[in-house]
Amino acid sequence: MGMPPSSFLKGKTIRLLGFFMILFLFFIPDKSDHCVPSNKSSSNIPWLENLNLDGYSSFDDIEHAAKDFGNRYHFQPSAVLHPKSVFDISSTIKYIFDMGSSSEITVAARGHGHSVQGQAQAHRGIVINMESLQGQEMRIHTGETPYVDVSGGELWINVLHETVKYGLAPKSWTDYLHLTIGGTLSNAGISGQAFRHGPQINNVYQMEVITGKGEIVTCSEEQNTDLFYGVLGGLGQFGIITRAIISLERAPNMVKWIRGLYSEFSKLSKDQEYLISAENSFDYIEGFVIINRTGLLNSWRTSFSPKDPLKANQFTSDGRVLYCLEIAKYFNPDEYDSMNQKTEDLLSELSYIPSTLFTSEVSYVEFLDRVHVSEIKLRAKGLWEVPHPWMNLLIPKSKISEFAHEVFGNILSERSNGPVLIYPVNKSK
Fold first, then answer.
1. Residue 362, φ and ψ in degrees, nearest 5
2. What CA–CA distance (Å, rounded) separates 173 from 325?
3. With a cut of 70, which residues of the chain have pLDDT below it?
4. Which uninterrupted H or E stretch holds 93?
5. Cβ(114)–Cβ(71) under 8 Å?
6. Are 20 and 270 in contact (CB under 8 A)?
7. What are 56's strand-pairing partners?
8. Strand-pair category, 126-129 with 79-82
């Protein structure tokens, strides 16, 4: 893969017309009602063992491939392919394509298995373990237009650790970084930077993709354009991403991480709208809904310090639905004073409850990898591998107030114990 196409190097105008991305994630009791009985037989794909592959296929002990993060759908495959090369994947898919549709063999690319409705599973088919793909090593270009050239099976956390060695990092992230490049690019890749840079799929220069015919195709905005835009956010239905060139920017050293609470959604949404349109705003803008949580502030003090400890101690949630604005400002040590001044200026325009402003200063890597800390705690309590129903909605600005009134006011209850995340996004992104 060569240099990024020239069209990606041009500046783009941002129209400050916001809509909100609302993500729901509800935990429910640990049971699954979409299970398919175990099927360890490889009788429908005996040819897989005879293919000349650099990697290998397994037919036993493959129950893990019938499970994903959603943990509600369990479809047992007949085999798991552990490719070492792109040609392993290409050869397998080409063989299936040449068999014709009568074979009814399905294929699913599985990265870190973070799908929620069985998208990474293939009933009686072949699951391709993308994390075993051993392609060309990660390459980082540090020129005027920096980028990283990386395997589709690589984890974002590894990309972060490698690029920061050069003082660089991708522009847009997900909240959880222990996912594969190909996995999030097949969805969207949304986090609090999306209002400025768009989701991760907006920051890709070029990809190497294996099509449903087994062809290895290079695509970009200027080359094989339909495939490029079909694969990005295509949920794996148009091809398997085996390599991607992703835009980078200068990485900061530190992050000022801030949370503040609101009792009214209208004030939160107004402030989010203001922040995504303000010049030199925060670098990360997100939010979430808190449902009937008592003692909330005490639980935050382990990682956040209240700006006014005395007033914070006097605040009680009283079982109310509260809304949290989560924001962050990136900085380097020599920018500390100017960063603080700009932060104070921005905060002075907001309508959060003053006694609930919590602040923390952490490293850039620590901030981006913050969810992993929660994962470790949840795994220790047995709360990570439980069913995770998940719904993503795009709500236009004109409808968000009505939506919030009906859903947050009338539908959600104290039994709704999963996070409800709110991302403000510029419409042009």
1. -135, 165
2. 18
3. 1-44, 292-301
4. helix 86-99
5. no
6. no
7. 82
8. parallel
Residues constituting the chain: 429
A 10 A CB-CB count for 325 gives: 27
Sign of the Cα torsion 224, 172, 196, 392 reads positive
- What is the rounded CA–CA span in Å between residue 209 and residue 215? 8
Provide the pLDDT for residue 259: 96
**Exposure string for 364-398, b = 16+ CB within 10 A, e = fewer:** bbebbbbeeeeeeeeeeeeeeeebbebeeeebeee
Are 90 and 215 in contact, with CB atoms under 8 Å apart?
yes
CA dist 143 and 399 (Å) reads 44
Inter-residue long-range contacts of 220-227, CB under 8 Å, 24+ positions, other chains counted: 220/4, 220/5, 221/5, 221/7, 221/8, 222/5, 222/7, 223/5
DSSP 362: E
346 Cβ contact partners less than 8 Å away, ≥ 6 residues apart: 275, 278, 281, 282
What pTM did the predictor assign? 0.89
Exposed e or buried b per residue across 263-301, where buried means at least 16 C-beta atoms within 10 angstroms of its C-beta = bebebbbebbbbbbbeeebbbbbbbbbbbbeeebbeebe
Count of alpha carbons within 13 angstroms of residue 427, beta-carbon side: 10
CA atoms within 13 A on the CB side of 14: 14
pLDDT digits (tens, 9 = 90+) for 132-184: 998 779 999 999 999 999 999 999 999 999 999 999 999 999 999 999 999 99
User: What are phi and psi for residue 315, nearest 5 degrees?
Assistant: -85, 135
* d(C-alpha 218, C-alpha 231), whole Å: 12
Residue numbers annotated as active site: 114, 175, 286
Q: Are strands 254-262 and 321-331 parallel, antiparallel or unpaired?
A: antiparallel
